[in-house]
Amino acid sequence: MKPKKKPSRFDIRHKETLTLFLREYFELFFPDLARRMRFETAKFLDKELISLLDEPQNGKKRADHQAITDALILIRIVLDGRPEWILIHWEQQSERETHFERRMFRYFCGIYFKFGRTILPIAMFTDPAKWRRPISDKFTISLPGHPICEFSYTLIKLRGYKAEKLESRMAENPLAAAYLPLTDYPKRERPMIKAKAMRGVARLSKGQRQATLFSLVRESLPLNPEEHKQYQEIVRSDPLWQEVSMLESVEDVGYERGWEEGWEGGRQEGHQEGREDAVRELMKSGWLTPEQIAQIMGMDAGRVRELARDPGPTPGPKVEDGL
Question: In the predicted model, is pLDDT for residue 259 greater than 50?
């Protein structure tokens, strides 16, 4: 059994993005199904999925980052004029994996055995590599002259999309902007691609949705010092620059840290503490009003003022190693 793999911020951001932008995701990649889906009925069955992924295999219990970064969604869809409940199994992969199609088939069988409903399996690969040989999206079991089973899933390889294709959708769909850095474009255009992505995200209303996509762009396209200098020159003259700068400051003082702690450990305490620390630091800076901070952080303005008066918990004594 492989050692437990800690999910990266990059992986966690993709799960957050799907959770907050389920409708936009299907409108971008599955427009025919999006027209049939009733997104207000969607339920994320994270606990049920974790129990499936955590079942013993070969006498050993398996637990890894898929328990956090995969998604199982129950949603109502209209088929032939009649509403039906289906399941969506979604997986984000940040690296190529041998026999990946076999694992997708195993999960498909487990989910179908437990729920007995139609399943739409989706795997989205977010790795930066241009594959010389594509990963198979089918798993087949057969005997000579006797086909037994053929399973297939939808494979989305973001690097397989030309940047122009997603750029043409940015005005109508914010996910096109957020995923733009993961598409195919010349290396010299990295600063411009990030600037375009940030402009697209900055058009959203301030709050959790905007901050999540902003963080996804940062995690998807880290720039070296020279590229960052070019990026700053591009965005400095943009009227949306102030929005981008504000979001960068929010992340720097701990908003993103709080989200990461909450997702990784399933602990709302980590999420809440990170947000409250961020509020205190933003109020100390003096360049945002309590109302602006409340809007960004999704809090009541009165609570923001209370946190500004509260210095927060006093750190305990430092414990030296060996004591």
Answer: no
